[in-house]
Amino acid sequence: MDVIEQGVGRIFTDPDADKAREFFRHKSRALVSKLTTVKEAVEKLVKDGDYVSIGGFGVNRIPAAVLHEIVRQGKKNLGLAGHTATHDFQILSAGKCFNKVDAAYIIGLEARGLSPNARQYMESGEVEVSEWTNYTLAVRYKAACAGVSFHPIRNMMGTDTFKYSGAKKVKCPFTGTNYALVPALYSDVAVIHVHEADMYGNCRTKGILMSDYDIARSSKKLIVTCERLITNDEIRRDPTSTFIPYWCVDAMIEVPYGSYPGNMYAEYFSDEEHLREWLKVEKDPEEFKAFLDKNIYCVKDHFEYIERNGGIAKMNKLRQKEWLFVGARA
Amino acid sequence: MANYNTMELMICTAARELEDGASVGVGTGAPCAAAMLAQKTKSPNLVILFEAGGAAPLIPEMPISVGDSRTTWKALMASSMAEIMETACRGQLDYTFLGGAQIDMYGNLNSTRIGTDHQKPKVRFPGSGGANDFGSFCWRMMVMTPQDPKRFAEKCSYITTPGWLEGGDSRAKSGLPLGAGPYKIITNMAVMDFEPTSKRMRIIAVNPGYSEKDVQDNCGFELLKASKIVENQGPTEMELSILRDKIDPYRYVIGR
Fold this sequence. Notes:
The structure holds 2 protein chains of 2 kinds.
Chain A (H helix, E strand, L loop, with lengths): L4 E2 L10 H9 L12 H8 L5 E4 L9 H9 L5 E5 L4 H8 L3 E6 L12 H8 L4 E4 L2 H12 L4 E4 L6 H4 L4 E4 L6 E6 L5 E9 L5 E2 L7 H7 L2 E9 L2 H6 L13 E4 L17 H10 L3 H13 L4 H6 L3 H12 L8
Parallel strand pairs in A: 2-3, 2-9, 3-4, 4-5, 9-11, 11-12
Antiparallel strand pairs in A: 1-7, 6-8, 7-8, 9-10
Helix pairs in contact in A: 3-4, 6-8
Chain B lengths: L5 H11 L6 E4 L3 H11 L6 E4 L3 E2 L21 E2 L2 H10 L4 E4 L3 E2 L5 E2 L2 E2 L8 E2 L6 H7 L2 E5 L25 H5 L6 E6 L3 E5 L6 E6 L5 H6 L6 E8 L5 H11 L9
Helix pairs in contact in B: 1-2, 2-7, 3-4
């Protein structure tokens, strides 16, 4: 297949499927406990310069506890998949943790507006960016999962999104139609928050999957936080519900309300008040610094963060809001 | 002037385009309000899909994210990004609504940046998200946007999502799926479609209180005109009451 045209965007990760297979060949399949702490998981598994993928959808079922810890530990020069990234992107921008981004959706928080700080960071020239789309990043993970180095797609062609991506245009050998090929995306480390898991890393979730099925399988290292630990017997009682098997998982941490201030399906709604405050304080550098000290840098862990923002009473209210109970609307 | 605002007018106009039994991929805000209004008026069997995975929910109140729990409230399926996008790839998604900082005469959209240095843009926007995907694969792409000469630009600084590209058959030649593309542009002043051969934007209806001249004066490129331009119907009392009382009681969208 001859390349007809190609984008100028840099490909930040190696799409070579044989190199990835060699890595996965040596990844442990031992059924051992992966239980650890958020602090230790980030210390051991997230290295400066790593390429990071984040599960969930921006502010829904996000691994907030781990994202805060990445900022707290001052991780730098990360590569980042800006795939449906909203509040997760805002958190990592606050710490200037990354300097390379595959951008599908970045800097915005959907209907809530744009993050002034994340926007300024992306306009500063400090971050190298390649362009993609939500679907094309999703299939880049799919290719990696399937152990192949690219995936064909029929969009992006004819646009600047193609021009600033790392995609290549070819002719289909069967039909002669033009296709764009996008390279497999193997992350160094992915972080995902789920509803339930056992200590070995077998995971269940509820509601939409976003791209987590593929992110979990295509990443070399995987940190999972869960709302609740359950027994391995419970996993074996209902194997249909398992969506990530333990052999993909390197670290498992039970973090109730681990997606806060994000939404967790059938558990608790997002804390819109806190998210509004975050967007507001970003407009003033002094206020923003004090806000980050209060909520990240001078905080021990996720529980202390929650304590500082209303504690269990707030969580109770967000649980009621999730179920649309009368009077629970903000 | 009648007793409705610009946003309400655009939402009601958009909702009338969604026929019963069709499928639509929507984002948060006005597109979601239009789909909900269509479902509660003439199109009870409208299939609403959200890119994060929510499929055919009975939306209880306006979602704030295309992935929040409201997008799967009493849904038929809670799926994935790939599942929803592939529904569009296969050709099973009829409509979508998109927007952007700029739109040109062929319906190309910019939601990525203003300026020329891609690595250090003058203004950075979120980027494609699912827009390039939906805009490439949904059969009929629509835009709901207020109209001014800066937004309706002679040339986009950056094309995030394809419209009819350079017009004529350029979109088909690029390799994008055949037969899909921009369909209608709904603004506070008018409704536009695209002339079938040149694929240039064309006025087909003008909203109450506006003239063809207003529409052209608020556009950065020359608009074509349909042989018969009609006056667009304002919202009915029933549409307005459903929109205000049932869909957006807190005026998140219609209060903008």
